[in-house]
Amino acid sequence: MAAHHVEAVMGTTVSIDLRDDIDSTAAIGEVVAWLHHVDETFSPYKATSEVSRYGLGELALGELSPEVHEVLALCEQVHETTGGAFDITRVPAPNGSTFDPSGLVKGWSIEHAAAIVERHGGVNFCLNGGGDMVVRGNVDDGEPWSIGIRHPDHADQFADVLSVAGPLAIATSASYERGAHIIDPRTGRPATELASVTVVGPDLTFVDAYATALYVLGEPGLALITAQPGCGAYVVFRDGTATSTSLYRALRGPDARQRSGSRARQFHP
Amino acid sequence: MIPPPPPWLPSAAQPVDPIVAARLARLAERHEQVATEPLSPRSASTITGPRKHPADKSRIAALTMSVATTVGLSVYFARGATPSISTAAAPAKATPTAATAAPNTTVAATASTVAAQAATTTTRASASTVPATAAPSLAPTTAGQTAAQSFTGQMASMKYGPIQVAIGVANGQITSVTTLQQPSDRKSIRINDQALPELENEVVTVQSARVQSVSGATYTSTAYKQSLQSAIDTARSAGVLA
After folding, report:
1. What is the pLDDT of residue B111?
2. CA B218 to CA A176: how far, in whole Å?
3. Among residues 131-190 of chain A, which lie with CB inside 8 Å of chain B?
4. Contact flag A32-B215 (C-beta cutoff 8 Å)
């Protein structure tokens, strides 16, 4: 049967929304166990995690488990793709090191969680980890999911609403949360140009990391995102104007607030 | 021509894609570079040793609310209409799905009330217990701690439709809430539609409140509690949102 579960894990909250007539209890149990395993292995808050121990020089690269190798190689791949705007070796981490792959780990882990749900027969579901989500199938009877994009200035309002038939991954990066800064690894200073950035694409592993990179790169980074197959982006500037790519705009549902006139900027790849 | 594997790779390990190996080597090189030569003074100034966990401040408040929740539930069960609590022993070694798996402990109570109480507390309780909610499967139960238990309410026919609520409890705190709902019940969808305007008041800039999930930069549990996603989750747990 359909089920809805909320789990506090990885320093944030993961909402699991299953809409199929499957053994939801089993699927949720496996997903929750997986997410806690990821937390134990990758958390920069836990001094005993493999990532913390590597970051602090207590473990050598060769001593890390295959899954950590997989994630670190993916991080390096995004580092190459984004021209250095994504760099896990230059992120001030809670454990005192400057090594923090969290910008990719969350998306990667939720993408894997989606695979777990699919193994349990799930076709229509949404996994939302702190605002970064994987969407599969539809909500009900072929009706697409309605996904709100948080307004950067108002926690209780939407800047946009998308009408999504899965599979799709959506991630948003911003610094509207007090104390949260996204550091530009190229300068070591917090990036401040944009109010918020939303990236959509086929795989949350990359979409999550691209959102972080685009926030750092600013508007020039849009061309880089559109160069990635199936990816689009929506950027809100500090002055309240916004721009988006055509792939992103195609996801706007009938409920999306119409933007027109001088306040809307259009990005044409 | 494939280059020889780097020396740090254990020879017994699975063959590693040379591209992956090269990426790991480059990453390690930059990591060592940063570790030996500190970042530029600017960035170094932003690194002020171990940071506090972002949820630290909320933990005391959340703990208070959790206690209130526990007391509230206790009062309910103590006073409730013949609360026949049939307790089979909690699993000594929790399986990976222990927290939400078929329960050994059944609380026979009207699910509607459990749902209502749980719904008001689920996000608070779960957000407050980041360390405590460590998966029972991964954290073996030590002496002095109680194993995570799952409580499943009976299937109840509410006016919103059939609904069943399962709550996970560890060390006297609610660590998770799961709502099981019959998906094919048309009546519930109709009533849910009527329940939506309540949420709509909060959603000003969008024309429809029929949003099932929210994308936003919610990095911490504290931020989650203040988020619209949290409100949606709570409403769904209460069975008033399809």
Report:
1. 33
2. 9
3. 131-133, 135, 139-140, 145-151, 154-159, 161, 170-177, 179-181, 183, 187-190
4. no
Q: How does DSSP assign B212-238, residue by residue?
A: -EEE----SHHHHHTSHHHHHHHHHHT
Chain A touched by B15 (CB under 8 Å): no
Q: Write out the H or E segment, with its range, that includes residue B125.
A: helix B111-128
CB of B219 within 8 Å of a chain A CB? The answer is: yes
- Do A109 and A34 meet the contact criterion of CB atoms below 8 Å apart? yes
In this prediction the ipTM stands at 0.86
Q: Do A28 and B237 touch (CB under 8 A)?
A: no
What is the tens place of the pLDDT at every residue in A16-62? Answer: 999 999 999 999 999 999 999 999 999 999 999 999 999 999 999 99
What is the distance, to the nearest Å, from the Cα of residue B63 to the centroid of all Cα atoms in its chain? Answer: 16
Q: Which residue do the tokens 């206690």 mark?
A: B67
Which neighbouring-strand residues pair with B205? none
Partner residue facing A170 (CB), from B97, B215, B224: B215
Residues of A in contact with B34 (CB under 8 A): 89-90, 98-99
The alpha-carbon gap from A105 to the nearest alpha carbon of chain B, in Å, equals 13
pLDDT digits (tens, 9 = 90+) for B70-119: 656 665 666 554 433 333 333 333 333 333 333 333 333 333 333 333 33
Largest CA distance in chain A: 57
**Chain-chain contact of A257 with B207 (C-beta, under 8 angstroms):** yes
Q: Which helix (H) or strand (E) holds A15?
A: strand A12-18
A27 closest CA partner among A35, A18, A38:
A18
Contact assessment for residue A206 and residue A233, using Cβ atoms and an 8 Å cutoff = no
**B102 contacts chain A (CB < 8 A):** yes
Minimum mean pLDDT range among A129-143, A219-233, B81-95, B205-219: B81-95
DSSP assignment letter at B90: P
